[in-house]
Design brief:
488 residues; alpha+beta; Arc Repressor Mutant, subunit A; 3 domains; nine-stranded mixed β-sheet; 18 strands
Amino acid sequence: MGLEIHVQLATRTKLFCGCALEFGAEPNSRTCPVCLGLPGALPVMNRAAYEASVRFALAMNCKIAAFTKWDRKSYYYPDLPKNYQISQYDLPLGYEGFCDIDVEGGESKRIRIRRAHLEEDAGKNLHDVPGCSLVDLNRTGTPLLEIVTEPDIASAQEAFDFCTGLQKLAVYLGVSEASMQKGHMRFEPNINVEITRGSDVYRTPISEVKNLNSFRAVRDAIEYETQRQVQDWLSDENYVFGKAANENRGWNADKQMTEYQRSKEAAHDYRYFPDPDLMPVTTSADWVEKVRGELPESPTVRRDRLVSEFGLSPGDADLIVADRGDADLFDAAIDGDKTLAKRMTSLMLGAAKKSANDRDLTVSAVLSNAASWRQLVRMLEDGVVNASAGERLLLEAMEGDAAEVDFEQMAKDRNLIQVQDVGQMSAWVEQVFKDNAGAVQDALSNPKKAKAAPGFLTGKVMQISGGKADPKIVGQLIAAKIKEMQAG
């Protein structure tokens, strides 16, 4: 399989006019003579869209063309008012790239990128009203980066992993919101099957499944289409590439099957020719290197670094790098100190993430000051406050709107500074042993309860200390006292 992927770029305006991009706006309210294709209207290229496309192409390890032009791709469809789409045909802005994905067994597989080119989107046909179709042209002229892979993908799961990885990369770079619900990414797998029988090899015709708008649809459509092609070949051995026609098919999610739409077009069907109204685009090697130098560390490389340098689990590292702001906050807060990494991970992925998720925000969007985070993590690591107090302080800070938080002062104001006086903690332990003779006896002589009893006693010490005792030291004192009593 190869994939064609359309990514809507996160620009404020359309690709060749100044109309605003706004999801959910009143139908046909974000249009102008240019995107409606009215006579005499001339397009002007959106520089931000081109720069975002180059940034994404470089992140996919593509070569960047020093010269490219705009082409007209001619076809008729009700939501394409000009009857042609402005695209890039033989000179795409990016080419010969690759992306690596993780596959089973912890291995990596390279998926080659054939091309990445910039083009405008069509409008949208709506079929909700019985007896007619409605056309909304708000989307007409939206900038799309089309990414075309080589046929390197061997399974539905590989396609799923590639698509999800590409979405994360787009969001990470800030080139697209990449929202499936808003249609910011659409996937079109080109599928055929190689069948070996003895020394003979048969290849089925290519089917392109159009406009899949979810990762699940990508996986399900490929799994179904693969089996359909095998079954069609078993029924008719002339169902092979070159004898049977290539097809465009649609995915029916309700029936969980692909359905025939039309025969698949070839390039000559679109009658490409250079657009006479737009200047070609040239890029200098210096500018390309400048853009390359501004690229952030990729999510995959960053995840691997967090695992190798700071001992995070791959799952935790994936969660942190899922949002670039959160990943930047993590790195800035621990500032290379490996001793803080575990505490920071626990805070970010525990209470902080839940609090942020409840407001549909990321952790870094709620509390972004790295120095404040580092102060709190250091207080926990040094035993200045215990875990429950640290969580309480963090949640209270996230409920406020302060850009910077002094957690040490907060802890003092709320009487949460942890007691480090061993003598005081020993007195609390003595009191708890006196008041909980049953638990003490369980710790000494009940094999079934001996492991749980010290934890119970520690909890009682924390209770009478108002949560200010250091649970680590308390645990050590309790263990020593039990050992002493057993020896006696």
